[in-house]
Amino acid sequence: MTPPGLPTSPSTASTASTASTALLTDRYELTMIDAALADGTAHRPCVFEVFARRLPAGRRYGVVAGTGRLLEALADFRFGQEEIAYLRGCEIVGERTLEYLADYRFTGSISGYAEGELYFPGSPLLVVEASFVDGVILETLALSILNHDSAIAAAASRMTVAAGTRPCLEMGSRRAHELAAVAAARAAVVAGFSGTSNLAAGRRYELPTIGTAAHAFTLLHDDERSAFLSQVASAGPGTTLLVDTYDVEQGVITAVDAAGTALGAVRLDSGDLPNLAREVRDQLDGLGATGTRIVVSSDLDEYAIAALAVAPVDSYGVGTSVVTGSGAPTCGMVYKLVLREGSDGAMHAVAKASAGGKNSVGGRKVAGRRIENGLATEEVVVLSPDADLPALDQIAEVAELRPLHVALVTDGEIDHAFTGPEGVRRAAERHASSIAELPRAALRLSAGEAALPTEVVTV
Amino acid sequence: MTPPGLPTSPSTASTASTASTALLTDRYELTMIDAALADGTAHRPCVFEVFARRLPAGRRYGVVAGTGRLLEALADFRFGQEEIAYLRGCEIVGERTLEYLADYRFTGSISGYAEGELYFPGSPLLVVEASFVDGVILETLALSILNHDSAIAAAASRMTVAAGTRPCLEMGSRRAHELAAVAAARAAVVAGFSGTSNLAAGRRYELPTIGTAAHAFTLLHDDERSAFLSQVASAGPGTTLLVDTYDVEQGVITAVDAAGTALGAVRLDSGDLPNLAREVRDQLDGLGATGTRIVVSSDLDEYAIAALAVAPVDSYGVGTSVVTGSGAPTCGMVYKLVLREGSDGAMHAVAKASAGGKNSVGGRKVAGRRIENGLATEEVVVLSPDADLPALDQIAEVAELRPLHVALVTDGEIDHAFTGPEGVRRAAERHASSIAELPRAALRLSAGEAALPTEVVTV
To answer: Where is the Nicotinate phosphoribosyltransferase N-terminal domain positioned along the sequence (chains A, B) (predicted)?
Structure first.
């Protein structure tokens, strides 16, 4: 214990961990490398592809998110002394492989959909060009990040679409793993949320943070009035007072009494929100607090938000449903080898072929979105079954195709325009632009098919 | 870039991050502290309680998990220079609060259900005794960890119950946030899983790790035979060969040809698993590989595992469904102020009282499980509506009550018997013992009510 009054020794490490990400990996990635280094296939040139066979049931589009985080994690994908010592101690791989891992740096290239972009079944979301061992080792980490963050962003996108011009605020940290919560806040903002309650996310990605008080603050005080007066004294009358600890009607009276008619907002966190919001709006207006906003929270999801569209609500606090993907907590993205050199020195398209519903399409691909009169009509995937990198201009009508692939990593060099706070801002812009291209039917919340068909064109 | 051949500068930081956990916190915890420090209520003695109002729909019991991780995170809950600088820069709290935060160490006491223990609606899972500011600040972090890990453990428990004596192996990292995946592997093992594919979890919690090869390894090679020979050369004939890349029947022939009848196992990752397992078992036996085991994976959940009970399967690889809580990706645990000192110097039970379905029961509680003839029959919560700490022996028939609360933190001292690898081992034992106490009906997978009623006894 540090004696009171003496300076403590604060942790200088940050929650924005710069620790190695290399063991966030399934064991079999390393055992495959162990065998491939021994048999001579390890350095065959390969192309891996990330795609989703389908969208979650009923969803009309997906949202790519996590790309910037993946690039940040790639920079920290290093096997340091501790990681090597663990692998040696467990005899998971041999010494030759440990030497390879100790020197591991990704030197290949990665292109893919820009973060924030929408996607559809079969969209080639990420294309990794590297030797087998250099590329396969990234499978687990890439999928963890993309599957999680994209699931959150897809749910968040439906909520911001439902909310229209009213802000959505992410407040779900307590219902998610403590570090997944940071990524979830980021993904929600990519998909149009205006801020988050999560301080670590606010710091790392320069996101606006929000939050004033919980019921505990009111309960701590001898009465509600004392609590409100304290909060207003501390945060000013522009604060948001939580009025549903005891009785909402009395709470509103006490709130306006404590803060005056300049009170910033009241928050309702329980009850029948559509009716309660109307009653509270009338009450606030009657008290002269016509500028006081109403914030609602309490198990909101995209359907509840839509149902509140005609209620006098000013912003939505969303928790559980956004951080858990609103029924689809992960995406089904997979990371597949689609092209590799054979013993003949030529490149060959490859794909799992057995019956069983997990087949994929071999070969290198690029993608474009067909835009007609400003509206998206089709996802076009151009496939080259052999070695050559296909190009969008290899097919007709190319002028109407908006290219979807951007270069993320080139010969091991990460493009940091996609990382950090700037990456989040760009991704949020990309999301807004791509949503604006979708036909209105694609934005319906009701269950439906993918909004755009995916056409695969072989060149 | 490091020149080839020269030693690199490995990251000495570990994925088991020791960074500060203090900003994994909702902003409102700090703004409440800001106001309470100003108005004089900050240091009122308080009791906070974590509980769940209900189980996920249809579930018969919950599983407490994450307790050990919470204690680990508590040890790193420090506001260092970077955290203070961020809060100052954003003007989230004032200087008085920053001084308090810079010195923050939890000096209160925490008791609660042992990790691995089962729980029911209203069970007082964690009891935090501290001043208001010392206790409220832990709300977000405590709930993040407990809600996530308990959701995984509850799903995993249903799977291990369904699997009976056959091992379940956790392989879901790619479908979860990359660090949530580490916690998920740990929680699955708490609930009876035998191992994980996740290397970071293996290292941090000394869990057995598993995994041999993906379809990509077979596809890398010119043919399946080359891939199998390579894997056997590298890992020995006791390895597990993945036989469904091209044609399962041929794959099994090639596998036994490559490894001999001492082949450890074959893995089936697609298709109609119950029938396929029977065919493969017959084929293996016919080839003389009678000791070769069959591992199945491919979107397994507790229902699929139950359906495979009569198939000749030796172990289950479970991915998506376990890391996403099999339909319930979070628990609804809340962290509520239940008792606090008033301006009169006396302790008062407190609870949110407005209509709206979020009410709780104020007052300090302890809990015991009533055991009759070795079987659990009731969750008994003993409530003291005033200041006194209730005790189980204040009610009749106490001899039949198994106490559920253990001391986790005493006056700021963390009991490290509950953390690290030893904590996981103890939690797994606790889970197995508590499952063994449940009546058989409680273990049915079908939707039902909570298996035990919760009786609240006021003393």
So the answer is: 23-147
> How far apart, in whole angstroms, are the C-alpha atoms of residue B310 and residue B306?
9
Residue of A nearest to B66 (CA): A177
C-alpha B208: how far from chain center: 17
Query: In terms of CA atoms, which chain A residue is nearest residue B343?
Result: A222
**pLDDT value at residue A361:** 85
Residue A393 pLDDT exceeds 90: no
Q: What is the DSSP string of B347-372?
A: EEE----SSSS-----SEEEEEEEEE
Query: Hey, what domains does chain A have and what are their CATH numbers?
Result: 27-151+328-350+358-458 (3.20.140.10), 212-312 (3.20.20.70)
Q: Which of residues 360-419 of A touch B (CB under 8 A)?
A: 412
Q: Three-state DSSP class for A223?
A: coil
Which residues in chain A touch residue B174, judged by CB atoms under 8 angstroms apart?
26, 139-140, 143-144, 147, 335
3-class state of residue B301 by DSSP: coil
CB-nearest to B211 from A28, A46, A269 is A28
For residue A138, what is the nearest residue in chain B, using CA coordinates? B174
ipTM of model: 0.95
pTM: 0.95
Q: Which of A287, A320, A279, A455 is nearest to A376 (CA)?
A: A455
Give the model confidence (pLDDT) of A75-126 as tens digits: 999 999 999 999 999 999 999 999 999 999 999 999 999 999 999 999 999 9
Per-residue pLDDT tens digits for A306-318 = 999 999 999 999 9
Give the B window 204-223 contacts with A, CB below 8 Å: 209-217, 219-222
Helix (H) or strand (E) holding B411: none
A11/B20 Cα distance (integer angstroms) = 6
Scanning B11-30 for CB atoms below 8 A from A yields 11-30
β-strand partners of A349: A339
C-alpha B219/C-alpha B438 separation (Å) is 47
- What's the gap in Å between the CA of A14 and the closest CA on chain B? 5
pLDDT in tens, B355-386: 666 667 899 999 999 999 999 999 999 998 77
Phi first, then psi: give them for residue B340, nearest 5 degrees.
-155, 155
CB contact under 8 A, A28 and B245: no
From CA B358, how far away is CA A274, in angstroms rounded? 17
Q: B133 to chain A: which residues are within 8 Å by CB?
A: none
pLDDT score recorded for residue A118: 98
Q: Does the pLDDT value for residue B446 go beyond 50?
A: yes
Q: Decide if B324 and A323 are in contact by the 8 Å CB cutoff.
A: no
**C-alpha count within 13 angstroms, C-beta hemisphere, residue B236:** 6
Query: Pairing between strand A347-349 and A315-318?
Result: unpaired
